[in-house]
Amino acid sequence: MTTPRAARTVTSSVEVAADPATAFSIFTEEVGCWWQQGPINFHDSSRAHGKRIEPGIGGRVLEVYDLATGEGLELARITVWEPGIRLAWTSSLDDVDVDIRFAPSEGGAARTVVQVAATVRAGGADRGGTAWVRMTPQWFGRWVDRRDRVPHEPEHLARLAVAVHYAKPVTAARWLHEVFGLVCTGDLPATDADFAWIDLRIGNALLILFPPEGDPDDGPATPTHVPWVFVDDLDAHFARAQAGGATIVQDIWQHGFRAYEAEDLEGHRWTFVQAGPNVR
What we know:
Blueprint: E1 8-16, H1 20-29, H2 31-34, E2 50-53, E3 60-66, E4 71-82, E5 86-91, E6 96-105, E7 108-120, H3 131-146, E8 160-165, H4 169-180, E9 183-184, E10 198-202, E11 205-210, E12 225-231, H5 234-243, E13 247-255, E14 257-263, E15 269-274
Parallel strand pairs: 8-11, 12-15
Antiparallel strand pairs: 1-7, 2-3, 3-4, 4-5, 5-6, 6-7, 8-12, 9-10, 10-11, 13-14, 14-15
């Protein structure tokens, strides 16, 4: 007999330059701004304009697909709504309960420690519900620091991104940030072995860092640089590439974003991605 996995809880925290009541309001009312746009930051990035949190117990946490109505994919239902103190919800997509607390910081009245805890219930599954623990410290504090200087709207992504394969991606990302001034979208992992995806920003364009493909003992990794092009109709683009003789490396797949990979006439690899509504 298989023993069900025990419940587990993951936590994080971030200190922000706002009093608890203001921090609560920014967190809930401006989540569409501070939750960053990116290919893997939504369940369906080809449709998502951003996120929205409805106020009050029973309110929904939504991934917004229709700007006119504010409707989309229900991510969770709110179970606790105490402005300036506590916010909690139960996931609608997996077995995760999220609890967020806003406590005055010892650093001053105008500062708040935001504590995030996500519990995967015993025997339950995590299909992204714990992402708030990882993303809140990386994105919420940055938004609070810059929100008075920028428009309060989701950031639009460019049509072109570049994926670069490094033997030591975390080391490379840190160097690119410190030496070339590229902007990290979040906190970097501690080691090169402890990461899956690293985004750097150049304006509204993305530089995506990956480890090398293949066995390093076999020589230089292939590929080393892969353009990512966001297109309006991925299925039509895929059909055109096939008809034109492109070598399809990987058929259309979906992991938050929909994409396929192909090689051009000289064997260079390209990734084509379904553009979301905020890609310009």
